[in-house]
Specification:
The chain is of the alpha+beta class. It contains five helices and six strands; from the N terminus they run H-H-H-E-E-H-E-E-H-E-E. Strands 2-1-4-3 form a four-stranded mixed beta sheet. The chain has a two-stranded antiparallel ribbon with strand order 5-6.
């Protein structure tokens, strides 16, 4: 992973108190010195809005806004050639570790797959019985009950 993103992830973890360190202030200053001012400015704008500045990508989905990320962005992240932003929420993106991907696919660390739950089929819808003419097995149209006679309320 890109050293800039590693610095931003660690900075975000310290600022949001996800991890605790003894010299948090000194560590924050050291991490901020590693990041260029343009990237740090964008990160700080997101933090000022109350958002996290960095989000992971899992199964082509940004974990910050839960929107699908274009495949070209994911490919760039895999090649680790450039820093990418989410087109929807503006967070800096990084690929989550392979362990997280295996957990999402339902695999245990040994590589065996979990069994899928069995789905029950739907019950067929019951339809109302059709009226048949006396002495026949063929259904009649809804408006006619006896030959030559209409249902009450319907006029010819």
């Amino acid at each position: 992973m890109n050293y800039l993103l590693q610095s931003l992830i660690k900075l975000q973890a310290i600022e949001f108190e996800e991890i605790t360190e003894k010299n948090a202030g000194a560590t924050v200053e050291e991490l901020r010195a590693k990041v260029p001012p343009q990237i740090l400015g964008h990160y700080d704008r997101l933090i000022a809005k109350g958002k996290k500045g960095v989000a992971g990508v899992r199964n082509q989905v940004c974990t910050g806004c839960h929107m699908r990320v274009p495949i070209a962005v994911v490919a760039t992240l895999k090649h680790d050639t450039d820093i990418q932003l989410c087109e929807n929420c503006g967070r800096y993106l990084y690929l989550l570790e392979a362990e997280d991907d295996q957990a999402e696919e339902g695999k245990t660390p040994t590589g065996s797959a979990k069994s899928k739950p069995v789905r029950k089929g739907r019950k067929p819808k019951s339809s109302p019985p059709l009226a048949a003419a006396p002495g026949s097995t063929m259904p009649l149209p809804m408006a006619q009950t006896e030959p030559g006679k209409l249902r009450p309320g319907l006029r010819p």
